[in-house]
Specification:
153 residues; 5 helices; Pnp Oxidase, Chain A; two-stranded antiparallel sheet; alpha+beta; 7-stranded antiparallel beta sheet
Length: 153
């Protein structure tokens, strides 16, 4: 996830994330400490960018396909059951949630990423050998349906 420092320079950090269920507004969630730089940056400027790579496991020389999401981030308390349920979809995230101790809850927060309506993609669904002939053709965008977006985005 990339956030913006006070001086406008980017700050990028890796995150573990989960996606909201199809029955709700589209969002991505991660868990962090309020003391980390990304949380402090979001407090002063909620604009973020998130790049999700999809590496090719068998064709190692090929560049990863990617999805880039831009949007706004806000904070959700760690005791929010709906967000905890989203986080419980993956085993590693369930373990993280189960290990949160009561005293740590005050220093932790969920970050909710509310995407803009356009998601940028590269290489997903393309034959890697065709992309070798003209890599620029692998980029495209996907529009998120209005009913899945938050009103404030």
């Amino acid at each position: 996830m990339t956030t913006l420092n006070k001086d406008g320079t980017p700050h990028t950090t890796g995150i573990l994330y989960e996606v909201s269920p199809p029955s709700s507004k589209f969002a991505l969630y991660c868990l962090t400490s309020k003391k980390y730089k990304k949380a402090r940056n979001i407090e002063q400027n909620p604009n973020i960018s998130l790049l999700i790579p999809f590496p090719h496991f068998y064709i190692r020389f090929a560049p990863s396909s990617t999805v880039t999401i831009q949007g706004k981030a806000d904070f959700i308390p760690t005791n929010d059951m709906e967000t905890q349920n989203v986080f419980r979809k993956k085993r590693i995230l369930r373990l993280i949630i189960s290990e949160i101790k009561q005293r740590e809850q005050e220093s932790l927060t969920f970050i909710r990423i509310k995407p803009q309506n356009k998601v940028l993609c590269y290489g997903l669904g393309f034959n890697i050998f065709k992309l070798r002939k003209g890599h620029a053709q692998g980029g495209y965008s996907v529009i998120i349906p209005q009913d899945r977006l938050f009103k404030d985005n």
